[in-house]
Design goal:
- By secondary structure, the chain is mostly beta strands.
- Helices cover 0% and strands 30% of the residues.
- The protein has a domain of 82 residues.
- A 3-stranded antiparallel beta sheet has the order 3-4-8, with no helix packed on it. Strands 1-2 form a two-stranded antiparallel sheet.
- Strand 10 and strand 11 form a beta hairpin.
- The N and C termini lie far apart (100 Å).
Length: 154
C-alpha cells in the first residue's frame, strides 16, 4: 500500500505521494451476513525523519480491493523544531495501581499441600531378605534311570 497524497507539515512535504507502507492482516472472520471481514494494521510507514506510526480509522474492513483507500491517522505527533522535524510517540505508562488487562490471565501458582508427608525415620535400614537361586539342572537325575528316554511314559 502507499500514500495517496503528499504528507505536508507547514507546507513542507514530509512524505511524497506513493510512499510505501505495509498492510498487515491481523485477523479474519465472517460477518453475520456471511461476507469476509478482516482486521488490519498499518506498519513500516517510513519518512526521512524515521518511522511514523499510523493506525487505520476502521480496523475491521469488509474486504480489501486493489486501489481501495484506507483512511488512517498518525499515532505520534509530528512537530517542527527549528529546521528539524521530530516525530514524538507517547509511551504508555502503567502504574502499579492500574488494573490488569482483562485478557491477561496470571499463571496458577503451586500451593503447598495441606499436610506435609511424614518424614522417614532415621535409624537402622531394613535388612535385605536372603534369596536363593537354584538354576535348572541340565543333567538327568539318578531317580529317572539316568537317561532322557527313561522319563518318557509308555
Amino acid at each position: 500500500m502507499h500514500l495517496a497524497h503528499d504528507l505536508l507539515l507547514d507546507g513542507t512535504a514530509l512524505a511524497p505521494a506513493g510512499t510505501p507502507a505495509r498492510l498487515v492482516v491481523t485477523d479474519k472472520d465472517k460477518a453475520p451476513d456471511g461476507t469476509a471481514e478482516i482486521s488490519i494494521a498499518l506498519a513500516e510507514f517510513k519518512l526521512r525523519q524515521g518511522e511514523l506510526p499510523v493506525t487505520p480509522l476502521a480496523a475491521v474492513l469488509a474486504g480489501v480491493k486493489p486501489g481501495q483507500p484506507i483512511p488512517a491517522q498518525t499515532v505520534g505527533t509530528v512537530e517542527r523544531t527549528g529546521d528539524h522535524v521530530v516525530i514524538r510517540v507517547a509511551v504508555p505508562v502503567e502504574l502499579s495501581s492500574d488494573e490488569p488487562h482483562a485478557s491477561y490471565v496470571p499463571p496458577p501458582l503451586k500451593t503447598a499441600a495441606p499436610e506435609l508427608p511424614p518424614r522417614p525415620r532415621k535409624g537402622a535400614s531394613p535388612s535385605p531378605v536372603p534369596t536363593t537361586f537354584n538354576p535348572p539342572d541340565q543333567s538327568p537325575s539318578p531317580d529317572d534311570g539316568g537317561s532322557p528316554e527313561a522319563s518318557a511314559s509308555p
